[in-house]
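Feature request disguised as a bug report, sorry. It would help if multi-protein outputs had a clear separator. Right now it looks like this:
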Amino acid sequence: MATMETTSNPAAPGSLYGRQDDSARRARARSRAITRALRRGLLGLLVLAAAVGSVVALRPRPVPLDVGRAARGALAVTIEESGMTRVKDRYVVSAPVAGSISRLRLDPGDVVREGDALAEIAPALSPLLDERTRAEAEARLGAATSSLGQAQAQAARAAAAKELAERELARVKKLADAGSLPSQALEQAEFEVRMRAEELSSAIFAGKVATEEVRIARVALGKDGGRSPRSGHVDVLAPVSGRVLRVHQKSAGVVATGAPIVEVGDPSALEVIVDLLTTDAVQVRPGTPVVLQGWGGAAPLAGRVRLIEPSGFTRPSALGVEEQRVNIVIALTDPPEQWAALGDGYRVEARLVLWQSNDVLKVPLGSVFRHGDGWAVFRVEDDTAHLTTVSVGHRSETEVEILSGVAPGAAVAVHPGDRVKDGVRVEIR
């Protein structure tokens, strides 16, 4: 009898195992689908992020800049330069003659009166002679002595001849009166007396000349033996009353003619000297107000320009460049009590006010630049730079007057640079 065996197939449809395999396959398919979707999503996000990053990276960044404000206020056009005080009327007392000056007992600040003796100048001592010069001088002395002896001998001979001529005249006159001699002989005798008298006078003068030559030769050798080296001194007198400002020759010594000895003046009568570039000086007028600062006092001093010297001069600058300058004389207008501590030659800082106003519209000087034939600024509004044409007026070292173009309170770029253009986004630092 045949036996029939029944075999179960797990994969057969409708079986329990078949249903489990289908569920697993569907789960794996869903998992793969989800994974693919996630990958696509991540890839899309990466592409989007890269695109956004590229856009952000390629987008122009705002230009950082400094900003100032247009505001109304005071503005002054000034020129600042260092200057020096000086006494208005200064008298330099110099040596009237060459010689040996005595030691001065005066010091700077001493009071002197007009006519006071400031110093005494005596004749200088004779210089020392070398051997050759001394020998020459001794030879000249010997020659002068011999000439003196010769002149004396000639004078004695002329005196004897004159005496003889006078006796002869007396004898001839007696004979002529007696009629023994003609009148011509008398005239000849009188002429002879006159001639001998003239010869005696000439011999006497020659003797005096020889005497002076001997004295000159003795003086050259220092053997005059007469006047003291301190005799015949000259007093140097004060020309005006005032104070001694400076002593040039304090110790005793030899001075030449015209050598400065002391300076005298009134230190309470001061003025200020400022040397300006000639290009700046043409803007200055007499009466221009001046503020003096940096002189050491607690408050600045007031002054006014008194004089602009008509002649300029050349002076090298700190960089070695030759500059044409001219002196400006400033008179102090404050009471002397406020600047009593100032003296001659003190340094001050002068601020010359060429123009000023208390109510003008102004912007920082660095915000204005040339644009075409005029001026312009970059007005900052909504983080954007806008090129704006303006009209400018006066300017100082830090600010400039705006006549038209911007309103009070407007923000303007200060030193914008080449990156700032019209319509460029900016970032205020």
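(second protein starts here, but nothing in the output says so)
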Amino acid sequence: MTDKLSWIAVYPEIILLLMACLITLMDLGVKSRQRTRTYLWTLLTLGVVALLQFMYASGGGTLYSLHNMVVSDPMGNWLKFFATIAVMVTLVYGRPYAADRDMLRGGELFSLSMLALLGMFIMISGNNFLLIYLGLELLTLSSYALVALRRDNATATEAAMKYFVLGALASGFLLYGLSMIYGATGSLDVNAVFRSINSGRVNPQVLVFGTVFVVAGLAFKLGVVPFHMWIPDVYQGAPTAVTLMIGGAPKLAAFAIVIRLLVEGMLPLAVDWQQMLMLLAIASLLVGNLAAIMQTNLKRMLAFSTISQMGFVLLGLMSGVINGNIYSAANAYSSAMFYVVTYVLTTLASFGVILLLAREGFESEEIADFAGLNQRSPLYAAIMAICLFSLAGIPPLVGFYAKLSVLQALVASGQTLHIGLAVFAVIMSLIGAFYYLRVVKVMYFDEPITATTVAAPFDVRAVLSVNGLLVLVLGLVPGGLMTLCAHAIQQMLGT
């Protein structure tokens, strides 16, 4: 492979890094409170990167580069495309909110968001333990700074400290686990690790210990029980625009590193890590749904909802290898990918409405703040209701098909345990429907606490409307996205 070809795989990352540095320097001369020039340059950069990723993903080829440290395949390119769009949408929703709270005194919101996205790209494309860890640290360090962006806000500072301490602990878990895998196999290359484990000439005790630590580190990044302690506090304490930045696109990157490390690197150990994922999924569905019922703060409720939603993703990931056979792997992993993508889409719209209702000096994050929203703004109430119904898994919205695809993957395995897990997941979804429908009831049947009309800039209104419409349309015609996920996963497994 020529050097020229080698660099093609990382063109989007190079563009993103150079423009993040350039925009940071350009912002020094911007005086506008809204940071309009910085905002437009950031969106333009992300648009170009998204177009490039779309072209790579549509091409369908798999390319290894930089001495096998980077892989550019359809699964990674589609996830990077969706992550870029998610960050663009987050910045569109978050800019008016950030401007009202004096978070745009510098261009840090934009430059840190671009660096966080670069970290996601490296995580998604990493084919080497060190590179994956480097991407993870770039994402988390940028996220810590974003959470603490309101320096004069005690709640945000406290959330950043909690996130930092627990994030450092989780990174240590993951790094220790990866070092044990390296010690056992003698390689940091994901493909070489797979071949070494598959050969059967590796100390199994060291491998299993390493796998336990790796799964614990990944579980923190996904925010599943019992590594979920940071999620409610950070979601509630961080500025809402930053909450969306943490709760949206990074979930796609977290899914990617689970696939890269556990599936591409440690598939022969599936019997071990699938059991761990199963326990994490059961605990997440139980704790997430039961804890969410008791919340009065909408951001905190959505945090516990996230924990239960990630439990569903784990159910998809743990049903890929049955009795040593991988015949159902493509179906299982593509259902998990479909779930993550649709979850991020729905999360963007739901937090978009929360950001829209927030005014200067008023956060609008309590469930009671949504009372009578339908009387104040039928459009935004409808978008929020669509998102909540989708998260609850009510047809014909996309969340229903996401849950159905994961349940179908479980049942298709034919295992009694998996069928039992599918029944348990359905029961947990019924419990979860209560707290989603409670918010809909408040929006449509309670008296409004204020007569203030909901005003928003044109770009926010347009993007939010398209976002809400996609949740509905993808529920009516989910086949295209499902096929895209299936082809991407099949090609990943094929290489």
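Even a blank line would do. Unrelated, but nice: DSSP finds 21 helices and two strands in the chain.
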